[in-house]
């Protein structure tokens, strides 16, 4: 089997707001075609025009190649070899960041091809299932132009998730910092009041996580708040500090009363080595598309397993990436949850319409995927409906 073509589709939801901090407004879907009529599907959560440029741009020399020209004629079954070929062939220009994200979308599609060709779901190719089911948590992003409205919105979403059958949810509670919603400006005390209200709304048995989205500049500021949350039984707090503050993360991992989680932005296992060994985080959160695809995400999982840490994949795109996260979760023994946003808990038209993830939730649990490959059904009408106009410079 040989790769014959790679298509990049940049998609944009209507009314995209550049002042909103939400990557669910756009997407890049990558289709890898083969000479046997099998097409693999992948995506990555990064600026879509950037990923498209990395894939389609012509190369200038042997270590600054375009990914598409590099892959035509390759055997898609050679996933590890192809990953190294892509990494080395682009390392002078895109050794980290968006270049690895583009590699991740392609790698995801290659695993989809392999599973389809062999008639097996991807997790079986990744080593087989370590579990009979996957536990999803609802990732809840509230809205509101005042702190009071924001609080009520988050409580309402949480109760809706619980009624939907979820056993766990992550509260995106950010009243300041780079991700603050709708320009809100709130205090740490107000954020604490919101989380207390959420715990009271769902009771003690419901599992709660909190994402503060890089809120604090230093470990001391974070600890003053996190220690107050100890009675609330928070499973983990996500990204309390900026990604590169590894010394601060080590302080939080040692002194905070709950687990510390991070890694959604990281690319390659090499960045996760630093986060695990210097940052000491207890929960690693590779995003399959961003980190470099299933090939690289599995390597990150092994690093975490060797160090006795948990894996909880980040995923905030469409059903394509969610399916990839589910296959990864099934194939490793230390992944207690995946981030899961069903269509009826989101207002993103791309999440609702673009692709079905092939997952079924019953009693708060997801059954293992059964379809070959990723098990994703791509809606070609939505691919056309949300296609962005070609970029002109």
Topology:
Layout: E1 3-12, E2 26-34, E3 39-44, H1 48-56, H2 67-71, H3 79-94, H4 98-118, H5 122-125, E4 133-134, E5 136-140, H6 147-164, E6 168-172, H7 188-202, E7 207-211, H8 219-226, E8 234-238, H9 246-255, E9 259-262, H10 268-277, E10 283-284, H11 288-291, H12 293-306, E11 310-311, H13 319-330, E12 338-340, H14 349-353, E13 355-356, E14 361-362, E15 365-367, E16 377-378, H15 380-385
Parallel strand pairs: 5-6, 5-12, 6-7, 7-8, 8-9, 9-10, 10-11
Antiparallel strand pairs: 1-2, 2-3, 4-15, 13-16, 14-15
Helix pairs in contact: 1-4, 3-4, 4-12, 6-7, 8-9, 10-12
Structure report:
With 393 residues, the protein is α/β, with parallel strands linked by helices. Helix content is 40%, strand content 17%. α6 runs parallel beside α7 and α10 runs parallel beside α12. The radius of gyration is 20 Å and the shape is globular. The two termini are 37 Å apart. The mean pLDDT is 94.
